[in-house]
Specification:
single chain, alpha/beta, Rossmann fold, 3 domains, 5-stranded mixed beta sheet, 3-stranded mixed beta sheet
Length: about 550
Amino acid sequence: MARTSRKGAARQVAAIPAERIWNVAVYARLSREDSGRKGADTIETQIEFVTSYVTQKPYLTLFDTYIDNGESGKDFERPEWQRLMDDIRAGRVDCVCVKDLSRFSRNYIETIEFLEKIFPFMGVRFVSVNDGYDNNAPGSNNESLIIALKSLVNDQHLRDISRKIHSTVKARRERGEYTGSQAPFGYKKMNGNKSKLEPDPETAPIIREIFEWRATGVGRAEICRRLDKRGIPTPTQKLRQERGIFNCDFFKATIWREATIKGIVRNKIYIGVLLQGKHDQKLYEHKPCTAVPKSDWVITENAHEPIVSLELWEAAIKIEYAKCGRRDDLPDNIFQGFTICGVCGTKIPRQYNTKITSSGKRWECYYHLCPLHRQHPADQPFRSIRSDALYEKVFPLVAGQLRMADNMAAVIEKRSKRKDNPREALDAEISRIAKELETNSDRLAGLYENYADKILTEQEYIRLKTGYEQKAASLRQRADDLSQRAAVVADVSESNNRWLAAARSFQNPTELTREMLEAIVDKIIINDINKIHIIWKFKDELDLLESCASAGEEVV
């Protein structure tokens, strides 16, 4: 019997198309309402169920697991879902598996948008295990109506839950029950009745001291220093201890802040009065959280045992408003919301100080000081920065960016006269890379079969496999870079792109205004008077324009 040559066998095997291997993302989600509820689904159950399904399919390989725990299904603004979409855009994932559609989303419109438009356009396979849905399976189009109906049911379920919760909370408030998720500092929820508050023996005395100090004229900063010196935990520290949270930025405050003292002294809850319903959010109507007029607040007198007497509260609030009342004659703070401490990342408010000099003249000063500077005195290279000094440093930088808009406009104008579309070239290259990735994946999938059939030696198999994997990684990185460039190049290539539209309104400025900052500035990071760094808005567009202008080249 004639011996089949190795090359001939290789050609014969290569001629048989290998089944495509899909890189799978297992996605799991659980809302806050379902978390811990008896009989509810769990994250662990979802992951185990879907992962078991993936491992049983030879054409599916698990790439990563994405978990949104405590996230609502009303929209897709979820951190892990955003990470998953980034991996899809980069070509690292081409298949998404979920337990059922309700874990994917409860929003009917957005679900159908993904299933019928976004995923097919991006070449993504979608599998809902419990629903028996696979958009790559034969006849999957016939199931689209069933999928749409299930998604609609999920959407209506979310709306119904939201409506019921909103009505229940409103009724509880009107009955004088406390509806907050946790008790305010100084109180705790009653055992056996979580809708009622009672003084916390551990923290209520601290609240009384704060009011006594404030009533005798002690300033907020001094109260903070006294509490810190005694090692009294802040409200956020106490919450950390109760919940066992140690690595969350939300609970990073370890020193008392003047804003905390202000909130405590002005809160009527400490004299037994409940003020609830200050904000309203109706998820079932897709309405964001909005402030409620004071006339519509739900006010309950004598709702619980007070910590301080009415006389002490009135004495403290009198000092509070006398010393810290808002002055209407102060000039506007154009830097409000922009200034950030370069050490701890805290927003830096503007502060006001005044005194009468020995000559009888009134001295006024506006300055910016990190409210947490006491937390990092050794690391803080500046005590404070005066508003006028900050203005003198920031204005030239902003004016320079605005003048740059003229040069950028020339680049855009030159680009607009060209007939070729830079985005088309990028999209074509991305498509080419996607096809090359698919071909590379097919060849990689066929390698093991060749090795198992002894067509390839172990050394040849490892060498070829390493080469294909390295090539795939390189192609994915290239596709990722091109995708990021494509995301901004279309906007940059238009004469009315976002950067120019924002900058052109303020050409040749003679003074710095808040409107200028809102148009082009994201943050102003301050370390000291000589270390001020501005983070600009539309950074991607600006970087691309600057690179084009400096090199004298086209946008792509």
